[in-house]
Amino acid sequence: MQIHIPFHWTARTHIGRCPRVFNTVFGSVNDGDRLTRENTELVIEGFPRSGNSFSVFAFSNAGAGDLSIAHHVHSPSQIITAARYGLPAVLLVRAPQDAVTAGLAKIATHRTGDLLRAFAAYYRSLLPLREHYVIAPFETVTTDFGRVINAVNRRFETTFTDIDADRHLALSQKFLAQEKFDALQAGAPAETSAPAPQFDRYSSLLKRAEAEHARVLALAADDGTARSANNA
Question: Angle 126-31-128 (CA atoms, 0-180°, nearest 5)?
């Protein structure tokens, strides 16, 4: 169920800092199976359009199998709950301009200012829980997902199967083919041809979002998943 109000994402992000309240509201109108529970075995979360779908797909094809994976809620509550229960968690992150632009192309009723506010609040709220998740930058997710899997295995002592470069390419191709097939089956509309957002109107919000993005990326180096690690 999609709700489009001027401050939808800002509101849900702030409410998401209180998992009990957020989960009650979310579960009443959405699929509650995606929420993080005490018996969840893996949490994969990030702001919308940050590689969420591919990450779930890749983990499911790397030894995760039928594991219970919490995903696609796009709320801080997911990682907060994972930290509370000591669950393996992955925090996805993408440059705010790219994430917001992709979000607007997907659903034209989203608003640039709302998404930028929510982006900054989302990542800022999770920084105090840094030790409870692996950071997965979008560039790494889309080019070398094996680094993310290896980082999860190191931090949480899990045994997910590594994905080498050839396997990553094969999974990427399979994922894109599946996405196209699912869209056709569902009769889903193509992404809108909305004009690119005019970020100059929201320069202060963009700077705030970029600052949070930079803080998260700086910490990703500790996980071996930062962009610089890819170039090593």
Answer: 5
Whether 55 is covered by a domain: the verdict is: yes
CA distance 37 to 213: 27
Nearest to 153 by CA among 230, 52, 224: 224
Query: For residue 230, is it within any domain?
Result: no
Which amino acid appears at position 144 of this protein?
Answer: D
At 126-172, the pLDDT tens digits run 999 999 999 999 999 999 999 999 999 999 999 998 999 999 999 99
Q: Is the pTM of this model over 0.85?
A: yes
User: pLDDT tens-digit profile of 66-125?
Assistant: 789 999 999 999 999 999 999 999 999 999 999 999 999 888 778 999 999 999 999 999
Contacting residues for 160 by C-beta, under 8 A, at least 6 apart: 59, 62, 63, 64, 149, 152, 153
Tell me the CATH number at 51.
Answer: 3.40.50
The neighbour count for residue 181, using CB atoms within 10 Å, is 10
Give just the sign of the alpha carbon dihedral 44, 47, 48, 51.
Answer: negative
Is 118 inside a domain boundary?
yes
In a domain, 148, yes or no: yes
- Residue span of the structural domain in which 139 resides: 8-225
Per the structure, the count of domains in the chain is 1
